[in-house]
């Protein structure tokens, strides 16, 4: 595996006050040009290779699409996206240092042809969290970063649909069943993005994927960050035994669920000095009393 290692100084640049205010208002931020040409080519090549492997193994959907969970386990070449300098800064700025990647996936969606039955896809991330947590609004708990690896700069290319500001709304009007035709929610917009752009969004933001009716194949990958006391959904069992594990940084290992050498680091964060991301932020004076997750 060829690993693209992040620049620690850039990765550990906090989000600005203006960015934080816009994120709190809208529930998402668009990061233009997050991936440079080399990053983009590296990620595209790796995902297309994984797609061909899935195709050879008969693992594609009926529409020849691939929704591959556990992105780094399924495609180790994507490990550089975990703490990419253009996007990871938002994850730790919003959630703090006691985080890991709890959910990730990459997606390949060829053009949709012919009629497709209606399916209501609007949702908030988190699954059962959205039924079992009683507050209004529910807590953030996680943020997700999506990297666009194909051109979705025009509508109809499998664009992500979002409702700006909806992250503080617990329930969205919808059909009684997902197969009943229902109007698009008021205020919904299609995210338009160039290859290499990224989106950072609050898990509570109401969103959906639209059909790809263009001649292009839609490629994207999503990395979800949550607190280490939230169970990892990804299949990361046995990762320390993988041949490429030794080449990862301590922070990357933390993000993949590793709890250190037994000197105190564990998911509840009771021994901050032994947590790799805490140490990195502390060394650079980036712990911030104003934001609870970043308090020393």
UniProtKB/TrEMBL annotation:
InterPro entries: Phytyl_CoA_dOase-like. Gene3D superfamilies: q2cbj1_9rhob like domain (2.60.120.620). This is Phytanoyl-CoA dioxygenase family protein. It comes from Jatrophihabitans cynanchi. The keyword Oxidoreductase applies. SUPFAM superfamilies: Clavaminate synthase-like. Keywords: Dioxygenase, Oxidoreductase. GO terms for molecular function: dioxygenase activity.
């Amino acid at each position: 595996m060829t690993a693209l290692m992040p620049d620690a100084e850039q990765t550990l640049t906090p989000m600005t006050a203006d960015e934080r205010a816009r994120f709190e208002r809208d529930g998402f931020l668009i990061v233009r040009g997050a991936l440079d040409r080399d990053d983009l080519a590296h990620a595209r090549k790796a995902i297309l290779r994984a797609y061909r492997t899935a195709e050879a193994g008969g693992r594609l959907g009926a529409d020849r699409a691939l929704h591959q969970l556990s992105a780094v386990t399924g495609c180790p070449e994507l490990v550089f996206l975990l703490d990419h300098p253009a996007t990871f800064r938002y994850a730790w700025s919003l959630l703090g240092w006691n985080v890991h990647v709890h959910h990730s996936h990459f997606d390949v969606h060829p053009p949709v042809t012919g009629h497709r039955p209606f399916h209501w896809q609007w949702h908030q991330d988190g699954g059962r969290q959205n039924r079992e947590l009683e507050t209004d609004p529910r807590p953030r708990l996680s943020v997700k970063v999506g990297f666009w690896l194909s051109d979705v700069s025009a509508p109809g290319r499998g664009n992500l649909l979002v409702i700006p500001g909806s992250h503080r709304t617990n329930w969205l009007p919808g059909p009684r069943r997902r197969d009943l035709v229902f109007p698009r929610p008021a205020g919904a917009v299609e995210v338009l993005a160039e290859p290499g752009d990224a989106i950072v969004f609050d898990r509570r933001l109401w969103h959906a994927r639209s059909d790809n009716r263009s001649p292009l194949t839609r490629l994207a990958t999503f990395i979800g960050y949550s607190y280490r006391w939230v169970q990892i959904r990804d299949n990361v069992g046995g990762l320390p035994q993988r041949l490429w594990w030794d080449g990862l940084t301590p922070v990357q290992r933390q993000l993949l669920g590793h709890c250190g050498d037994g000197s105190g680091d564990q998911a509840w964060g009771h021994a901050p000095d032994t947590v790799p991301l805490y140490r990195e932020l502390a060394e650079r004076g980036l712990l911030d009393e104003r934001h609870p997750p970043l308090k020393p």
